[in-house]
Each structure stands twice: as C-alpha cells, then as structure tokens.
Amino acid sequence: MTDDNRGGVPPTGHSDTSRGGGTPTPAGAGGGLFETGPANVQLLYVLYLLGFVLGGLSNLVAVVFAYVYKDGAEAWLKTHYHYQIRTFWLTLLYAVVSALLALVVIGFFLAVLTAVWLILRCVKGLNKLQKAEPIDNVATWWV
User: What is this structure's pTM?
Assistant: First the structure.
C-alpha cells in the first residue's frame, strides 16, 4: 500500500475498473455528501424524512439534488436517484389529492396514508442502499 492510498479505498471517478467493473460501491464507501455516491443518496433519503419537520422544504432540496447527481451515478445508484425523484412527484400528487378530499373528510385519512407511504419508501430505499442493491421496481406507485 502506498502513502497515496492509506485508507485502502479505490480511487473515485467515473471509471469503475478499479473494482472489477460492475461491483457496486458499499453504502459507507466513496464520495462525500455532495458528490455522486452512496453517501449522497443516503443524505437525500434523510432529507425526505426531515420534510416532516421542515414542512417539505427539505423534500424540494432533495429532489433538486437527485436531478443534479443522477447523471454521474453508477447504474445501481441511478435507480435510487430515479426512485427519489418519483417519490417526490408522487408524494406531491398524493398530498394534493388528500388536500382536495379533506373537504369530504376522507382526505385526512389519505394524508396519513401518504405520510406512512413516504416513510416506507425511504426505509425501503435506505435498506437497499445499505445492502448496495438497486431499487427493484422504480416505476411503482406503491412502496
């Protein structure tokens, strides 16, 4: 091991040849919070969850980050970015429908279900990220 690479972590970059091609980066390795990588994806899931405390502002920040970072990501991480983007837009749709239906009371129940749905999607994403796995069905309307 040379002094240039004391941590034993392969060099970062767009080429994945140092890890044998398609081997995914473990969730804790590589990239900072503001670089394309597992740490950034994890930050975005946390921002979605913080939306409950910050009134949705962090959700807006998260979706902008997902759009910015998705193009430079490895294939398995791209599924997470697309899942996060879709989660944002579906949450917005479900929230608007819930607000409209709040006039007939059922919207309050739907708003709670939307919150639970968002939490479940974030937990699923974080779980897959921890295992360095892609999201299976990015296009789903469910969890």
Answer: 0.79
